[in-house]
Design brief:
The complex is a heterodimer of chains A (about 180) and B (about 450). With about 180 residues, chain A is of the alpha+beta class. Helix content of chain A is about 25%, strand content about 40%. In chain A, strand 3 and strand 4 form a beta hairpin. Chain B has about 450 residues and is an alpha+beta fold. Classes of the chains: A alpha+beta (about 180), B alpha+beta (about 450).
Chain lengths: ~180, ~450
């Protein structure tokens, strides 16, 4: 009897779970063009060494035109302190890769609410002409109206000589893996 | 004893009144979650690595997935701390998330919240941080996987189904925009918020064969209504959107079963009758013009929308309800419908959409007999946008000012500015509300 009522209860609970939540179709993607990335940031090596320090190796590469006035900075969660100093690069030519080694030690504090992490960020001036040229490519961006939107964005950035800001954020619980 | 009973009855009445009043004015609960990708890899590998506050988001490539860690946001300072703590070191897309968070507390959203269609529901905003995963060479489906959206969730709670909305903003549609991403992301939030207010159950194949839609695409009636309404909500915050939307209507896109699109002049014969209302840009413009041109129009449009909001929403039904709700504005509603459908609806089609109303009749009488003959002309697709849309008599000058803003005027632009001539019969014969100067309507040709 007890078995039967437990079974019935489980059956009802299962049925309730099935009907309790369902989602309607989300409105689908509104078409929009994206522009190609200007910069590639790849963590190609990550490990804690024998002294407990985190070592990262980050490859920096231009993926569109000649990037200039690059400022490479580091941030971390409060359980880590990055020992590597801020770097600058006057330019990064297409195809030319740079490797940055990042060293971080533990501070003894607890990780952040979101976890334990190191951020390698780059602020730079993109190759505006190269972006505008790509944005004007009618083969890559055939829809005139949508193409005009990205051209406008590219031209606005060029007029303002806007600095771009990109980063890679490495969570230390994946140390040992590539990202 | 009687006094006590009366006192008790008053108390119950007061409680009931308070409950009723609070339900009338209750704004939907809104919460924000910050989520960040911590890892990418084969789906099976990540499934075995998932932690307590993490979820595995499968990629559309069918093989890989993202490990996503989420935390509920308590305040702007908290969000900033979750993103790294230093505002000057935010990436362009992180700045977009911060700006979107600030934007979500705009007073106008607070004013819209009571229009959420379920007092027991909620809106959850997910600010998805894709920092480090923007490279589509390495993460080929990242844009699709984190594309902004509003998902409607029906949850059985306390004996009834409540409607919850989950809005995701990530900036994945703005990759490569640099600092220009933030403004786009705010606009997208307004658009998705518009979807959250709307109960329309979009047709299963409402957007056609692909999983995407253009603002000038002919889609299904409910899909085009939902998207048009969302664009209207966006235009409340970004008025410049009206010109952009209008500019997109140089052509209409029709999806081909074998994939891809054909583009036709909007009045080229591919759209007839109510088909015009299956284009989201046209619907957005109808909402926007009603809102702008009627006294207190925004409130009227939103009140009528909220009153009749249901799963079967579509523009023709909205307009008919609007005319019933505000018969005194039927003339303007007819005028706007006529203009935004380029004068291609017949009088009978106009009546079918708008319903019986003396003001509709008055408008149709002023319209003349040469309009709305329907399209019989067949036009071959033009994959490049048409330089000019051929309407019927009447001239509209389309030109861009020095700031790149598109204008539509009934007189030529200042000398030296290039323009395109657009013609339309609706304009030449349509009437005006008395006392309203013709020149106040840029689409009117007198």
């Amino acid at each position: 009897m007890k078995m039967q009522s437990t079974g019935l209860f489980l059956l009802v609970a299962l049925a309730a779970m099935i009907v309790a939540t369902f989602s309607a179709r989300a409105a689908t993607n509104q078409f929009s063009y994206q522009l190609p990335a200007n910069l590639s940031l790849l963590v190609n090596d990550s490990h804690f060494d024998s002294t407990g320090k985190l070592q990262l190796s980050v490859i920096l590469q231009s993926t569109l035109g000649n990037l200039s006035d690059l400022e490479i900075y580091f941030d971390s969660s409060k359980d880590l302190k990055v020992l590597t100093n801020l770097r600058t690069l006057s330019s990064l030519k297409p195809g030319a890769a740079r490797k940055i080694r990042v060293l971080a030690t533990r501070t003894g504090q607890k990780p952040d609410e979101i976890g334990s992490w190191v951020k390698v960020g780059v602020k730079y001036l993109p190759d505006y002409d190269a972006i505008i040229e790509v944005a004007s490519d009618t083969a890559k961006y055939p829809d005139q109206f949508e193409r005009e939107k990205i051209q406008e964005i590219a031209q606005n950035n060029a007029q303002k000589r806007a600095r771009f800001s990109e980063a890679v954020r490495f969570f230390t619980d994946q140390a040992g893996s590539k990202k | 004893m009687i006094m006590r009973q009366r006192h008790g009855a008053r108390l119950v009445l007061a409680i009931l009144f308070c409950t009723f009043a609070s339900s009338l004015f209750a704004a939907v609960e809104l919460s924000t979650t910050y989520s960040v990708i911590t890892r990418y890899g084969p789906i099976q590998e990540l499934k075995s690595a998932v932690g307590s506050n993490e979820t595995v988001v499968a990629s559309k490539d069918g093989q890989n997935a993202y490990l996503v860690r989420s935390v509920r946001v308590q305040s702007e300072a908290h969000l900033l701390q979750l993103m790294g703590g230093n505002e000057s070191n935010l990436t362009d897309l992180q700045r977009g998330l911060l700006e979107t968070y600030r934007f979500s507390s705009h007073q106008r959203f607070n004013d819209l919240k009571p229009r959420y269609p379920d007092a027991g529901g909620s809106i959850k905003i997910e600010l998805a941080d894709i920092t480090g995963y923007e490279d589509t060479g390495r993460y080929p489906k990242v844009s699709d996987d984190f594309w902004p959206q509003n998902a409607r969730i029906y949850r059985y709670e306390n004996g009834a189904y409540n409607i919850h909305s989950e809005i995701r903003i990530s900036g994945s549609h703005c990759i490569g925009y640099g600092p220009g991403a933030a403004e786009q992301m705010k606009g997208t939030y307004a658009h998705e918020f518009g979807h959250a207010l709307d109960l329309t159950a979009i047709e299963p194949d409402g957007y056609g064969f692909d999983n995407s839609h253009y603002t000038n695409e002919k889609t299904a009636p409910k899909a085009s209504f939902a998207e048009g309404f969302a664009e209207f909500i966006k235009a409340l915050f970004f008025p410049e959107e009206e010109n952009r939307t209008r500019n997109s209507l140089q052509t209409v896109k029709i999806e081909k079963p074998e994939g891809g699109y054909d583009s036709y002049p909007i009045a080229g014969g591919q759209l007839t009758g109510e088909d015009y209302l299956n284009v989201e840009a046209i619907n957005a413009l109808i909402f926007t013009r009603l809102s702008k041109e009627l006294p207190d129009g925004e409130k009227l449009v939103l009140d009528s929308f909220s009153k009749h909001n249901n799963r079967e929403n579509r523009m023709a039904v909205f307009l008919q309800n609007f005319v019933k709700d505000y018969p005194e504005h039927a003339f303007t509603a007819a005028q706007i419908l006529d203009r935004e459908t380029f004068g291609n609806l017949s009088n009978a089609q106009m009546r079918t959409i708008l319903g019986q109303s003396s003001n509709v009749d008055r408008y149709l009488a002023s319209r003349g007999s040469t309009t709305g003959s329907g399209n019989t002309q067949t036009v071959t697709p033009q994959n490049q946008a048409s330089p000019a849309v051929v309407h019927r008599p009447g001239t509209i000058y389309q030109w861009k000012d020095a700031n790149g803003n598109m204008h539509y005027t009934d007189s030529p632009p200042p000398s030296g500015i290039e323009y395109t001539i657009r013609r339309g019969s609706a304009a030449s014969f349509s009437g005006h509300e008395s006392g309203k100067p013709p020149s106040s309507d840029p689409f009117n040709i007198d």
